[in-house]
Design a protein that fits this description.
Chain B: Keywords: Amino-acid transport, Cell membrane, Membrane, Transmembrane, Transmembrane helix, Transport. The complex is a heterodimer of chains A (about 230) and B (about 290). With about 230 residues, chain A is α/β, with parallel strands linked by helices. Chain A is built from 11 helices and 10 strands. Chain A folds into 2 domains: about 140 residues, Rossmann fold, CATH 3.40.50; about 70 residues, no CATH class. The longest helix of chain A has 16 residues. The N and C termini of chain A lie far apart (about 35 Å). Helices cover about 75% and strands about 5% of the residues of chain B. Chain B has 11 helices and 2 strands. In chain B, strand 1 and strand 2 form a beta hairpin. Chain B is globular, with a radius of gyration of 19 Å. The N and C termini of chain B lie far apart (about 45 Å). In chain B, about 55% of the residues are buried. At the A-B interface, helix 2 and helix 3 of A face helix 6 and helix 7 of B. Bound molecules: adenosine-5'-triphosphate and magnesium ion. Magnesium ion (MG) binds next to helix 1 of chain A.
Chain lengths: ~230, ~290
Amino acid sequence: MLEVRGVDARYGDAQALWGVDLEVAPAETVCIVGPNGAGKTTLVQTIAGLHRAAAGTITVDGVDIAALPGHRVCDHGVATVPEGRRVFGHMTVRDNLLLGAYRPKARAAHRETEAQVYDLFPRLKERARQHAGSLSGGEQQMLALGRALMALPRLLLLDEPSLGLAPVIVDEVFDAIAAVTATGVGVLLVEQDVERALSAASRGYLLIEGRIAAAGPTADLRDRADVRERVLGM
Amino acid sequence: MTAVQAALSGALIGGLYALMAAGLSVTWGALRVINLAHFGLILVGAYLTYQLTTAWGIDPVLTLLVSAPVLFVAGAALQWAYDRLNIVEFNSLLVSFGLLMITIELTTQVWTADFRHIDAGENPYGTSAVHLGSIALPISRLVALGFAVLLIGGGHLVLERTFAGRGLRAFAQDRTVAASFGIDHRRLGMVVGGLAGVSAAVAGMVFALGNTIAPAHAYEWFGTVFAVVILGGIGNLLGSLFAGLGVGAFSAVVAVLWDPSYEPFVLFLAIILALVLRPKGLFTRRAAA
Ligand SMILES: Nc1ncnc2c1ncn2[C@@H]1O[C@H](COP(=O)(O)OP(=O)(O)OP(=O)(O)O)[C@@H](O)[C@H]1O
Ligand SMILES: [Mg+2]
């Protein structure tokens, strides 16, 4: 469903991505691992339309979205859980979720989707009327994920969902990601915790200095010397 | 006049301040534009009400049928231009001050610098009052308060309960994430700018009901209205209503108990104190974020 071909991205004169190719199929979890500053967040933002690709194509179900303004990309079934969660702290949990269903299609289904999100994360239901800023980090991560699900995505982009969370909470978040993938959504997962990323995903890409340095099934990646050296630190 | 009387009638003037502040507050809070030209729109609104009432002999409130759409377009066009030219925060202060001076100059060309007022014959709200015991409450101010409650209350409900309102609040906090959920900042900005224009039309109409109009008034509104916006919390609609009433009542009480000439001094001293104690405005909920 997602096909990225030859994508470059730059910040002014500095190039951050160089000819990136990758794809994600429905119901598949694909991970991107790589050292700090490799360009993982840039890649996620470029796919989401929040950063303009300098070259290349990004197609979702055959439609090229690379040139669309950021607010139009979600209409093609792409939703993002951004790095650092970025929930709307001054709004209630419920308002954060409903904001996720802003576009007409998602809006029409918002009651059912909201109930599904509460089934997935009962904690959010308990806190529905609380301000999102008063939630714990783990709860905010669940909210960021729930907000993205409210948009009824076919492709979910997750940027470092485990960042700063206790291991038990991370388990919960990853269980939820697995449940989402099982419903047929394609998931592109950027993750610091490489072990976890490799076990959650079926395929993966190693991104180094803006270039795809390795790609393949996660079982193979785990054994590759460059992955072990560059991101597993072994 | 007793202090109670003064507080009551002062609070009623506050309805007008709140109407003037609401539009300024929302565009500042949500779009990061400090739009001083808003005072120009209010002035034009007041003149439109004056002109249409005088020319056609219609009820001043009905002039909104013309002035509200006109100022909606003007407000939307302003936001469009600010957005296109990427004018925010401090720059917007300078640019919109220039626009305000131009507007004042233009209104002076059209209506001269003389004081204008709607003839008593055409203004059913001008001179009558409701008597509450010994307290006389001018109808024009009750109308101002009524519109303030209606407009600000309605705006608050839209912000809290609708998808568009949530979109605007989200946009005010994090534009990038809001965009990723489909919020089109250009369109939203124009709608908000337009609605601010409508609030300016209402404020101008209400002003014309109970006051004489002159171009220089736009400068006189500055201080008090800014105080109301900041005390209410930038972008907080209900806050601007309460702050408007509070500032109106407080100024009137000071004028009665001490001396009218102390009013600005005491008012701004009180505002500075209030902001030292509650830097985000008196009416901002203490949300952790
Ligand atoms: N807004 C920006 N302006 C200029 N350069 C930027 C900007 N954001 C990122 N960069 C640069 O682009 C490169 C890729 O950054 P990016 O944030 O995409 O990396 P990352 O892989 O997500 O890193 P991390 O693991 O720290 O999240 C880095 O060299 C970074 O310094
Ligand atoms: Mg990153």
